[in-house]
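Reopening: structure tokens for the 2'-O-acetyl adenosine-5-diphosphoribose complex, inputs below.
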Amino acid sequence: MESIKKITILTGAGISAESGISTFRDQNGLWENHEIEDVATPEGFARNPELVYKFYNQRRFQLTQDNIVPNPAHEALVKLEKEFDGSVLIITQNVDDLHERAGQESLIHMHGELLKMRCVATNKIYKSPSFFDQDTACPCCQEVGNLRPHIVWFGEMPFYMDKIQNALLDSDLFLSIGTSAQVYPASIFYRWAEQGGAKTIELNLESTAASERFNENYQGRASELVPEFVDKLLRGDISPEVS
Ligand code: OAD
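Re-run output (same inputs, fresh job):
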């Protein structure tokens, strides 16, 4: 391979941790304090919608507080998109809007967006108000009870999978940033990238179940590791060769 021209990047909760948003599986993470089955499955929503609306209303409230802002890792990926002589696509598992607030343009939200809601009757997607629940009338059908958070729950198919798979198969470099690599299908993206001939690199606070599968892995805080790595990439200091 001559040089790196197409970069695909998967991000997870670890990239937003230093912005003040809880991760899922770290100590005191969201899944330590909430049951996945209750707040992140279609069955949980059917059983107790009030609890599910409350969970996402709280998370939306947290996300929109003034102290929650993009950190140097989000900013470095914007710099990469602007200055790299090639293409950069970010696929995020995060439902926050910190990548776009930092200015990222080429971005896929595979697990949905906290600031959006969807009508279950028409599948139309809307910008959500700061609070909505089972009593909120839907903008399209005017019915109450038809709006749900625009979030992919366990057992549901993530969004844009065809586009994601094509991008991974067509990449020269795949980066995985701030994810524990425990949730399918994001957990196997490195394999699709590998199939397409890409070099694979993981950047995370600690080693993960998948670290050994990557060609290279580096540990540290995203706010330091990502800007350093982006500068190396922009200088041409990252070899496309798989060592
Ligand atoms: P996890 O909470 O599973 O993993 C976060 C990873 O980030 C961990 O490996 C941490 O070590 C790492 N981390 C924490 N702080 C960091 C920092 N400052 N710098 C770098 N890394 C740091 O979150 P995800 O892997 O994103 O899905 O979780 C994947 C999916 O599981 C989420 O999108 C969500 C969840 O269930 C849905 O809700 C559909």
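The two ends are 13 Å apart (CA to CA). The CA atoms of residues 3 and 239 lie 8 Å apart. Marking as resolved unless the reporter disagrees.
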